[in-house]
Amino acid sequence: MAKESFITGLDIGSSTIRVVVGQVQPNTSTIHVVGAAEREAQGISKGSITSIEDAVSAISSALETVERMTGIPTEHAFVGVGGTHIASMESHGVVAVSRPNGEIREDDVERVVEAAQTVATPPNYEILHVIPRTFTVDNQRGIKDPVGMTGMRLEVDAQIIQGLSGQIKSVTKAVFRTGLSIDDLVLGSLAAAEAALSKRQRELGVCLVNIGGATTSVVVFEEGDVLHVKVLPVGAGHITNDIAIGLRTSIELAEQVKLGVGTAAPDSIGKREEINLADFAGGEPTVVSRKHVAEIIEARLEEIFRMADKELQSIGRAGMLPAGIVLTGGGAQLNGLLEVAKKAFRLPASTGLPQGIVTAVDKVNSPAFTTGVGLVAWGAGAQDRGGLLGKISSLPSVNAVTDRMRQWFKNMLR
User: Which helix (DSSP H) or strand (DSSP E) does residue 342 occupy?
Assistant: First the structure.
């Protein structure tokens, strides 16, 4: 296959940068992942760039690794953005149908979506996505696709996702500095949903909780539509910090303890079970209670889930999503996590893994790679698979940010 058929997803996270390269297999909707790499993130805090030089170095390192693995030069990518600056709001657009016979065409839909976009966004914010939820034709509500219908007045209820202009420019600049061009900027948690959630889950009502290093993203779906988006300023790194403080040890050692023997279920551990820190790299001969470590992990997870549940309460969906909670991200690999989630949300909970992929790269089959795989799915034209992109890809606004950024960056280099 020509190298043009390969799609690259670049997931810029707070603690880890991940790159996934894949292609859609002919005559199927399956994605064949041919390469994946991850590198420790530098110059990034809570999803926002704090040092462009360090971020460029970390992104370049991840790209070089995946290029060596695949033998394919990486020239462009779909880039996942996140951070606590991401905000979502609801909007409404109204237009008159242009044709005398009242038949609604694609261009009418585009015009009404553009009308929804003209809401008063704060001056320092850029619109990332405009996601139409439902259309109204002459007061007939709840229409999913109005093309071909007849009416005089077309309305849309849309969800607008936006981010701080400065942060989006910083991400774009860091990526361009690596020599990569940007196909599109995509909210990371929407990409994760593309990979981890089925169409049926999105129809029934589901909440994706993506636990990253320094942030946790919450996306709620109902009837196939995005209902709510929020990025919380806590993540798996906070659990590591708590363990380091609780055990009076280094962050590096606390991370090893968390991943090696940590669990979020203290009730499953005997009171006499102990951990010798000398068993870990760089650890001193100190014996600590394993139950104590589990209690620290459980306490911080309960706080993260409480904050996420508060978001569900704010939209009246707490305890009311039939498809429950799907947990993704690097932080979703903790033992005992699902039991804490079921209790906190009063809903069924499961771990979200990338769906619809084939790969020889074992590490891709992990909650940590859902965003990277989701970005490849996004680029593969997910509308063919009944995904989110079918609603978003045709909008003229989606690539506007990257086009403006690309031009802005070229001007900077002159």
Answer: helix 337-345
Strands 325-328, 349-351: pairing kind:
parallel
Give 251-308 as a DSSP string.
HHHHHHHHHHH-BS-GGGS-TT-EEEGGGSTT--S-EEEHHHHHHHHHHHHHHHHHHH
Helix (H) or strand (E) holding 341: helix 337-345
Give the chain's domains with CATH numbers: 3-83+165-197+353-413 (3.30.420.40), 87-162 (3.30.1490.110), 199-352 (3.30.420.40)
Q: Where are the alpha helices (DSSP H) in 35-81?
A: 52-70
* Dmax (CA) of the chain: 83
What is the rounded distance in angstroms from the CA atom of residue 210 to the CA atom of residue 331? 8
**Degrees (nearest 5) of the Cα angle 327, 270, 329?**
15
Reading the chain (414 residues) residue by residue, the pLDDT tens digits are 455 589 999 999 999 999 999 998 887 778 999 999 999 999 998 888 999 999 999 999 999 999 999 999 999 999 999 999 999 999 999 999 989 999 999 999 999 999 999 887 788 999 999 999 999 999 999 999 999 999 999 999 999 999 999 999 999 999 999 999 999 999 999 999 999 999 999 999 999 999 999 999 999 999 999 999 999 999 999 999 999 999 999 999 999 999 999 999 999 999 889 999 999 988 889 999 999 999 999 999 999 999 999 999 999 999 999 999 999 999 999 999 999 999 999 999 999 999 989 998 999 999 999 999 999 999 987 434 444 444 453 344 445 555 555 555 555 544
* Token pair for 43: 């110059």
Q: Tell me which residue of 220, 225, 221 sits closest to 145, measured CA to CA.
A: 225
From residue 206, give the alpha-carbon distance in Å to each of 98, 196, 386: 37, 11, 16
Sheet of 225-232, strands arranged across: 225-232, 216-222, 206-211, 325-328, 349-351
Q: 265 and 298 in contact (C-beta within 8 Å)?
A: yes
From the number of C-beta atoms within 10 Å of its C-beta (0-12, 13-18, 19+), residue 68 rates as exposed
pTM of the model: 0.90
CA–CA separation, 356 and 381 (whole Å): 14
User: What does the alpha-carbon distance between residue 132 and residue 190 come to, in Å, rounded to a whole number?
Assistant: 14
